[in-house]
Specification:
single chain; alpha+beta; conserved putative lor/sdh protein from methanococcus maripaludis s2 fold; Elongation Factor Tu (Ef-tu), domain 3; 6-stranded antiparallel β-barrel; 4-stranded antiparallel beta sheet; 5 helices
C-alpha cells in the first residue's frame, strides 16, 4: 500500500521535528532539576571546626639597595692647575689624607704679601699709639691743643682698623693656600678620577673624584603597608626589629642590622613606605649600589587567627573564601589572608573566632544554601586515629 504524500502531512512531520525536541528538553530539564533538588535536600557530610589562634613571630621581606652612609664629591675650592695626585683609584683613604695638589705658588705669594701688610700696619699702629701717648701727656700741661690729641687718636684708630683688615686678609690668604692641598673629608673607598693632573680646575669644574664611606653602610628598602603595620604591632617602633640581608648567591650576611629611618608617610602610588637599616661593614662585603634581599624579624609574638589552607578556595588575584555552616546550611564567606604558617592561612578579615567552617569535605558542597551534616573535627580525628591503629595491627 503506497502512502500518499501531501503538503499537510509534510507540515505535520516538520512540526513534530521542531516541537518534540523542545518538549523533550523542557521535560528532561524539569526532571533533572527535580533530581538535583532531591539530591540537594539530602544533607552532605562535612567535617567542621572553628578558626584557630596561633602565636607567631612576624617577619617581612623586601628588596633593598646598599648605600654609603657618606658619599662626598671632592671639588676644588680655589682655582689653579692640578699638579699632583697622591692616591690610587679604588683605594681606601683616611680622613685628612692628601689627595690632590693645586699649584700653590701664587697663593704662597698672596700669603707673603698679606703677612708684609700685617707687619707694616702693626708698625704704623705702634707709632700712632706712641704719638697718642705723647699727646695725652702734653695736653695735661697745656702744651698742645685738644684738636691735636683728637688727631692723634684718629690716626691710632685708623691704623688699628687697617691692621685688623690686614690680619683678616692674611688669614684668608692662608686658608686659600691650604685649599691647594686637597684632602679627604672622610674615611672611605675612593672612586675613579674625573679630572686628571695638568688640568685647570675651579669650584665649577665639578667633582674631581668621589669618596664613599664603607663602614657602616645603609640598606634602603620599601615595605608594603600591610607588612609595615604587622611589624609595628610586634615591635617597639622598629627599634628592636632585626634586619638581615641576603646576597645574590643565596647566603646571608653574618651581621644583623637595625632600622634607623622610617619615612613619615606611605606612598600613595606604591602603597609602601620607605625605610632604611644600618649595618656594620668592617670587611667591606656590602658594596654601595648592590641590590640585596632584606628580611625583617620582629621580636614579639603576635596572636593571629588561622584556617587550614586546604579548606579555602580561590586564588591571590580573585581572593580566597571558605564555607561557613549556619543553620546546617553552607554559606560562602570571603576572607583576607596575609601570610601562611604551618600550612595554615593567617586570616586578617572575614571570620569571627566562633564561626563554624568546613575543614574537610568541601568537594561535597555544590552551592550556597546546601544542607550539610556536620562532624566535629576533633571527633573525626579520633576516629581516623583509631582506624589507622586498627589497620596497623
Amino acid at each position: 500500500m503506497k502512502l500518499k504524500v501531501t503538503r499537510k502531512r509534510v507540515a505535520i512531520v516538520i512540526l513534530l521535528i521542531i516541537i518534540v525536541p523542545i518538549i523533550y528538553n523542557k521535560v528532561s530539564g524539569k526532571i533533572a532539576a527535580a533530581i538535583q533538588a532531591k539530591l540537594n535536600s539530602i544533607p552532605k557530610e562535612v567535617v567542621v571546626d572553628t578558626p584557630h589562634t596561633e602565636d607567631v613571630f612576624i617577619n617581612a621581606e623586601a628588596t633593598g639597595r646598599v648605600e654609603a652612609k657618606y658619599s662626598v664629591d671632592v671639588i676644588a675650592r680655589v682655582p689653579g692647575f692640578l699638579i699632583k695626585k697622591f692616591f690610587k683609584e679604588g683605594d681606601f683613604v683616611k680622613k685628612g689624607q692628601m689627595l690632590f695638589q693645586i699649584d700653590p705658588r701664587e697663593y704662597q705669594i698672596e700669603v707673603n704679601n698679606a703677612r708684609a701688610s700685617v707687619n707694616q700696619y702693626s708698625a704704623l699702629l705702634t707709632n700712632a699709639q706712641q704719638e697718642l701717648d705723647r699727646a695725652n701727656a702734653l695736653i695735661k700741661e697745656d702744651l698742645i691743643s685738644r684738636s691735636d690729641v683728637d688727631s692723634s687718636l684718629a690716626t691710632r684708630n685708623q691704623n688699628k682698623a687697617l691692621l685688623d683688615a690686614a690680619r683678616q686678609q692674611y688669614e684668608l690668604a692662608q686658608v686659600n693656600l691650604s685649599y691647594t692641598n686637597i684632602k679627604s673629608p672622610i674615611d672611605g673607598r675612593i672612586g675613579k678620577v674625573n679630572i686628571t693632573e695638568g688640568n685647570y680646575v675651579t669650584a665649577t669644574s665639578g667633582s674631581l673624584v668621589n669618596i664613599s664611606s664603607t663602614d657602616p653602610v645603609y640598606v634602603a628598602f620599601s615595605l608594603k603597608s600591610d607588612d609595615f603595620v604587622s611589624l609595628l604591632r610586634a615591635s617597639d617602633r622598629f627599634k628592636d626589629v632585626q634586619v638581615q640581608v641576603q646576597f645574590d648567591e643565596g647566603h646571608w650576611y653574618d651581621k644583623t642590622g637595625t632600622v634607623d629611618f622610617v619615612d613619615n608617610q606611605i606612598d600613595k602610588d606604591s602603597g609602601s613606605i620607605n625605610m632604611r637599616a644600618v649595618f656594620d661593614n668592617e670587611k667591606g662585603w656590602l658594596v654601595p649600589g648592590n641590590y640585596m634581599k632584606v628580611k625583617l624579624i620582629a621580636p614579639k609574638m603576635v596572636q593571629y587567627m588561622t584556617v587550614p589552607q586546604a579548606c579555602t578556595k580561590g586564588d591571590p588575584m580573585s581572593g580566597y573564601y571558605v564555607w561557613v555552616v549556619q543553620d546546617n546550611k553552607a554559606v560562602r564567606r570571603d576572607i583576607k589572608v596575609s601570610d601562611s604558617i604551618n600550612n595554615n592561612w593567617i586570616v586578617t578579615d572575614g571570620l569571627n573566632p566562633d564561626d563554624v567552617i568546613v575543614v574537610s569535605g568541601i568537594q561535597n558542597i555544590a552551592a550556597e544554601g546546601q544542607k550539610l551534616k556536620t562532624i566535629d573535627n576533633a571527633e573525626y580525628q579520633k576516629t581516623l586515629k583509631a582506624e589507622n591503629e586498627k589497620d596497623n595491627k
